[in-house]
Amino acid sequence: MSRSGHLTPVPPLGAIVVGTFAMPRGARFDWHRHGVHQLAWASQGVLTVGACGSTWVLPPSRALWIPAGVRHRTGSTSPSTMRSLYFWPERCPTRWTAPTVVAVCGLLRELIGYLAGEAVPDDTRAHAEALVFGLLTPLSVTTIDPPAPCDERARAVAEAVLADPADGRGLDAWGRVVGASGRTLARLFVAETGMSFGRWRGQVRLRAALPLLAEGVAVATVARRVGYATPSAFVAAFRKAVGVPPGAYFARGGSR
After folding, report:
1. H-helix or E-strand containing 62?
2. Taken in order 100, 239, 194, 173, is the CA torsion positive or negative?
3. Cα(117)–Cα(12) distance, rounded to whole angstroms?
4. Rounded to the nearest 5°, which phi and psi values hold at 254?
5. What's the CA gap between 122 and 125, in Å, rounded?
6. How far is CA 167 from CA 5, 159, 200, 235, in A?
7. What is the pLDDT along the chain (256 residues), one digit of tens a residue?
């Protein structure tokens, strides 16, 4: 399912308006931009947001601040309910100029739900909005975005690995498929992606794992699906790349 024309709403009397969007698995709002700031959050399910060359996977414990004018697209990897908060720049004390992940604690969840209701009195709306601004806490998050090689032989290998991250063939085997030596492919990956093929494939596997983990799939199952021999090897790779193990990354309370 593809959607476009995700329009900026009419300004309210306050500083924030909340839009609610039911998104089936695979739905998306294609590339667009707003004249206002946006906070994209899934009250249920998992969102993926692409912007500025990066992709973020957002369970209900996390949301993404998208500054006004930033081109982005939003999708769902599972049946989701997106709550989209719009902030008018002239009424907004938050000045972040780049997409920023924020923690969504229990109180922020309740405030968003309250502001999404109808006929919220002006005085209580002002108090609720002030609390929302105070609760926007940025998180230090590493995005996992392996770059694509340009050479057609290396690109063919990359596309095959992206389609099946669990494929464990080495570069010599891939070379026989695409008509290049393993040594040539190794040089191409380093020159065109800035990393070895092994590291690049590890990035692909971790990125493929994120939506599965966000949906609550067991770590052992995720590890097997994306090509790790053991759950412990997967957890170690995840911790090295992200800084925390998978359970902490997707903790509902919005820990780091």
Report:
1. strand 62-66
2. negative
3. 13
4. 85, 30
5. 5
6. 38, 12, 13, 19
7. 444 444 455 445 568 889 999 999 889 999 999 999 999 999 988 888 999 888 888 888 889 999 999 999 999 988 899 999 999 988 889 989 999 999 899 999 999 999 988 778 888 888 999 999 999 989 877 677 888 999 999 999 999 999 999 999 999 999 999 999 999 999 999 999 999 999 999 999 998 998 888 778 999 999 999 999 999 999 999 988 877 888 877 765 444 4
| Whole-number Å distance between alpha carbons of 232 and 52 | 33
Angle at 134 between CA 131 and CA 135, to 5 degrees: 90
Question: What's at 7, amino acid-wise?
Answer: L
Q: How far is CA 5 from CA 34, 65, 76, 79, 82, in A?
A: 10, 20, 17, 21, 16
* CA gap 46, 169 in Å, rounded: 31
pLDDT at 14: 65
Torsion angle defined by CA atoms of residues 87, 90, 93 and 98, in that order, rounded to the nearest 10 degrees:
70
What lies within 8 Å, CB to CB, of 216 at 6+ separation is none
Q: How many CB atoms lie within 10 A of CB 10?
A: 6
Q: How many CB atoms lie within 10 A of CB 176?
A: 12
Residue (of 200, 252, 203) closest to 44 by Cα position: 252
